[in-house]
Design brief:
Radius of gyration: 32 Å
Largest sheet: 6 strands, mixed
Structural class: alpha+beta
Helix content: 40-55%
Distance between the termini: 60 Å
Strand content: 15-25%
Shape: elongated
Number of strands: 16
Length: 578
């Protein structure tokens, strides 16, 4: 299903001339070798362009359409018209050696085999170059010597004559296209699992680039390299029969999507790629800002959610988008020389947006006044589970993908999201941030079917749930201590929060003894008004409690934390209103 969807995406991209046709690819090129008609090097000039990376200005290679490049591991295999300097000039940082000479010889043989009988100036210049060039005396050439350090950095180089590039030459393009059509590595035909057609099966699939953590030269999505992975005597990629056209199409489409940051986002150790079946970019743009909301687009996001409620089309950038359009999300993670598929999800665009909307609704909670944003993105959600003082703020591997998949599909959240949030709160002695409170609320509603919680955006004073009431009571006792001891550095939260949350019966009697002394001090210093105010609140809460339970379950601990957060926010809300 993944390959079929990507083949379809390739065909959409090809219609709009956004990706190369079969036999061609987009490659990053750093330098051009300008040849004279006799094959001698006239000049070597950089093709890098200045671009902004963060706050810095950097020079990066340009992307050019070149003949399809081979997949290399450890062997020697030359590309046509575009390759690194080992193949094109026979040089390395250490000069030249037997291995580098072998690389140059492979490139020489390939170019001469294709171009030696072509009567065309560009083809003749390239053939003359390979016939004349001697890698052992490469550094005698002034152009090579001048740019040796830059050339050996590993970028690709191409041939040109003036402003005319070899790969753009019409005659050479026809020769290459004819070569691709008639090239046959084997006679292994079969039924392609992506197209369903009988065709020649691809033996090796091209690498996928753009997944952080994977090999920069490209990692395989389909690959078998050990007997344990093979079956019925089918070796390499014959074990998953994909036709050559489908192999080219899906790798080209996926590489294009990964190279465009408007169509991807990184989440933990995973890279998320998404696209609409009809190929319209407006769907991708909309999904991007729905998943990564910020203050500037909240109004537009709300309009989309309102359109969902009324089952209408939605206009984005003056383009009418259909909620019934099929939409795909692919989550990839690095795995040495291969890619691991965390998940692949397909649904209508409207259903995906509905699931995201319900997720945001479950997260909705009263926030401190200094918080301006309304929605919590998936990245910010996961960040709440990580130690803020840690250098590595990456969430637990695989949890990011599991959380995203649960949001998109409307399924239960992974238990690790809840447990890691609770553990983080306990490790910070009761630091219940609004993000962590949102996670607890959403998890209890979705995973524990806590229907009452759907109304608990803010403090719910009518709730009689024991754990929730205990959390509120703890917050009130802390407030009494703070008011009685202005400027106190450590409160009962720092010492007793974790034990009160887990074993209330053993802790609350101690807290009430402390409360008696705090309330007396408060009465002496501020009069009876504060005492009456707090005793009234405590009295109302105690009426809801039959007894202090000996222990609270994990679910009840979440309710305790939520009650504590709501009661604390209510106190700050009153102070701000005054």
């Amino acid at each position: 299903m993944i390959l079929q969807a990507l083949v379809k995406e390739y065909e959409n991209l090809a219609e709009n001339n956004l990706v190369p046709k079969r036999g061609w690819c987009q490659a990053k090129v750093s330098y051009a070798i300008d040849l004279n008609p006799n094959g001698k090097i006239k000049e070597i000039y950089p093709l890098k362009t200045e671009q902004t990376s963060g706050k810095k200005k950097v020079f990066l290679p340009v992307a050019k359409s070149v003949p399809e490049m081979v997949t290399r591991s450890s062997g020697v295999a030359a590309n046509f018209l575009c390759d690194n300097v080992k193949y094109m000039l026979g040089i390395d940082q250490s000069g030249t050696n037997a291995r580098v000479q072998e690389c140059f010889q492979a490139a020489k043989e390939k170019h001469l085999a294709l171009l030696k009988n072509v009567d065309e100036p560009m083809a003749n210049a390239i053939c003359n170059f390979f016939n004349l060039w001697n890698p052992e005396t490469a550094y005698d050439n002034a152009c090579v010597r001048e740019k040796s350090d830059e050339l050996n950095e590993g970028g690709n180089v191409i041939f040109c004559m003036g402003n005319d590039f070899a790969q753009d030459n019409d005659t050479i393009k026809k020769i290459w296209d004819n070569y691709v059509v008639h090239q046959t590595e084997n006679t292994n035909d079969g039924i392609c699992l992506a197209t369903g057609e009988k065709t020649e099966i691809a033996r090796i699939h091209r690498g996928i680039k753009g997944v952080p953590g994977a090999q920069t030269s490209g990692a395989a999505l389909v690959s078998f390299n050990a007997p344990a992975f093979e079956s019925y005597g089918k070796e390499q990629s014959y074990n998953a029969p994909v036709g050559k056209y489908a192999e080219f199409a899906y790798t080209t489409a996926l590489n294009y999507l990964l190279s465009n940051r408007d169509k991807t986002f990184q989440l933990g150790d995973s890279m998320v790629v998404y696209w609409a079946e009809n190929g319209m970019e407006e769907y991708q743009k909309t999904f991007s800002f729905v998943m990564n909301p910020h203050i500037d687009n909240e109004e537009q996001l709300q309009r989309i959610f309102d359109s969902l409620k009324k089952s209408r089309y939605v206009d984005v950038d003056n383009v009418q988008m259909d909620f019934e359009q099929s939409f795909y999300i692919l989550c990839l993670a690095p795995n040495a020389a291969r890619l691991s598929v965390r998940f692949f999800y397909q649904n209508t665009f409207g259903d995906i947006l509905k699931n995201i909307k319900e997720h945001y609704k479950r997260l909705d909670i009263v926030k401190p006044l200094w918080v301006e944003k309304k929605y919590l993105s998936v990245y910010e959600l996961l960040r709440e589970t990580v130690n803020p003082n840690s250098k590595d703020k990456t969430p637990i591997p695989n949890m990011s993908a599991m959380v995203l998949q649960s949001i998109l599909s409307g399924n239960r959240y992974p238990a690790s999201l809840y447990t890691d949030t609770v553990i983080r709160i306990r490790s910070e002695q009761g630091n219940v941030t609004w993000g962590r409170a949102s996670i607890i609320k959403a998890y209890l509603i979705k995973n524990y079917s806590w229907k009452e919680g759907e109304n608990y955006m803010g403090l719910e004073e009518t709730c009689n749930d024991t754990a929730y009431v205990l959390g509120r009571l703890f917050s009130v006792l802390e407030s009494i201590q703070k008011e009685a001891n202005q400027g106190i550095n450590a409160t009962i939260k720092d010492r007793y929060f974790n034990s009160a949350c887990a074993t209330p019966a053993s802790v609350f009697p101690i807290l009430f003894k402390l409360e008696n002394s705090h309330i007396k001090k408060l009465e002496r210093e501020k009069g009876s008004g504060s005492k009456i105010f707090y005793e009234k609140i405590i009295g109302n809460l105690m009426e809801k409690l039959v007894l202090f339970p000996r222990s609270l379950s994990l679910e009840e601990q979440g309710k305790f934390m939520l009650g504590y957060y709501h009661q604390t926010q209510k106190k700050y809300e009153k102070k701000e209103n005054k």
